TrEMBL record:
This is TRAP transporter small permease. One of its GO terms (biological process) is C4-dicarboxylate transport. It comes from Pseudobutyrivibrio xylanivorans. Pfam families: DctQ (PF04290). Keywords: Cell inner membrane, Cell membrane, Membrane, Transmembrane, Transmembrane helix, Transport. Its main location: membrane. GO terms for cellular component: plasma membrane. PANTHER family: 2,3-DIKETO-L-GULONATE TRAP TRANSPORTER SMALL PERMEASE PROTEIN YIAM. GO terms for molecular function: transmembrane transporter activity. The lineage of its organism: Bacteria, Bacillati, Bacillota, Clostridia, Lachnospirales. Residues 24-154 form the Tripartite ATP-independent periplasmic transporters DctQ component domain. The chain crosses the membrane at residues 12-38, 50-69, 90-108, 128-147. It is found in: Cell inner membrane.
Amino acid sequence: MKRIFFFIDEYLEEFIMVVLLIAMSIIMGIQIFCRYILGASLSWSEEITRYLFIWSAFFSVSLCTKKCISIKIDQFIRAFQPRGKALFKVLNLTIEFVFFVYLIPFAYRYLISTIESGQVSPACGIPMYFVQSAPLVCFTLCAIRILERWFLEWHNVIYREELKTWPSHLKQIEEREKHKIEMNSLLSQENFNKEILENAESEEGRK
């Protein structure tokens, strides 16, 4: 269960975007084959591809938020120590979180209005709320990703570390604690052996 949670939290956006990209490639490949080989164009391929691309674009926003790979100018922040950088990031993440939480109610109202209107796509007859739900899902997921990074940066502030990602940082912390325990065990064993050796040498000296 822990591995499943880790996979979902770490690779959700990447997995969905890869699936959407493969689906778009297959659909457009079928469309090209039908148009140039069979001489019959599909009426639904471009519409489905467009909707898949919309979902992919919104998931890319969450991915950029999670990976912190959006366009930014951080020369000023780089001048600070890890704790100072983390403090600035906490402030920035707080503003981002408030922004996305502010957008969620508007995306929800937009989705409800689409459901009530009963609008469907012209070619496939797909209910448009399947497409219009993308902003709500995206903004909610972005808020969750920002909250995860917010806790990560607070960890960096408190412990003066510079862990990069969530939830990978949990594994990093576990590895560091394990390493500390192993080092303490080795030191204790070394001190124990040293103490035995010193006692043996002292007994030989007495003899």
